[in-house]
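From the pipeline queue, job 12 of 40. The input is one protein chain; the requested action is below.

Action: predict structure.
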Amino acid sequence: MKGWTRALALVLLFVCSTTLAGCTDGSLGATSQDTTTEAQKLLPEWEVGDEWLYTFITPQFGEDSARLVVAEIDEDEGLYQLGISSEREAQRHAVINHNPFLGRVTIDGLSVYENGEPQSVFSFPWTVGDTWSFTLLGQEWTATTDSINNGNARVTAVSAEGHELRYTFSGSKGFMETFVWIDAEDVRQLRMDLNIARSGYSGDVYFYRARDLLDSLYEENDQEIYDTFVDEGHPNDGDWDTLVWYLDVEIASTGGSSGSLSMKDHAGASPLTRAWGSGATEKGAIGTIPSNTGEYSLTVTVRGPDSFVHLRVAGAQIFQYSL
């Protein structure tokens, strides 16, 4: 009897191992299947009006949502023009490179521009183990395609300065599913999450083509601080349409702590003035002022331990598209 029981157990074991179904709760038969098609590994083709709604999260501005939209296609130059549905987001990108995917994107590889040069953030056709390099967000990256599953290519990129990018490109949606930038201090500087991808956008989108004019950090000082910068316009395309400024300010809470900022153009106008008292903060403030070609002068006061005023200014040409 014992021999018959042992033989029956061996038969059942053989049946389970060959059919992989019906002998458990179904978990053995529920193995996942990769549904990636060859077409999803290839370079997508965009059309005017294609849009991707993203949630953006940054330390400076918290959480916001806006649509990236294909605003124009220049076949002669081989370029797409990506705009954004929020003009404030376009201004943020102009002065702090808030969104590196705005502006020109090459048709032949979806390369984005940094310092006037196209950068291959993506590697088509997607191949697991593929490695390449590019420059983005002020860092030089070495990227690797880690995996491809269900049409999504997952990439990790690292820089020599200890920064990391992790992003996923969706072959079915034609653009990024997620994008995360973590700096060397393990601070998440940018996260983008895709909510909706579709075509046929209708409305206005914006792009601010910009160049940095000033990026200065002013710290505690018993004297007034004097500084200057020059607005010379775009090196090839004439005067800027506007100047975009960004302020990050923190004034100590101790007695006597304070701060002030006064900007004047060469004609004597004061387009930007600020004053802060003890304990005041102004984080991620952004605005625009007229572009008046020539020299701008700054007078800054910063009093109190650990007090600082961080000012950035960029010249910008404004592009607005109505779709």
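Job complete. Residues 2-19 form the longest helix (18 residues).
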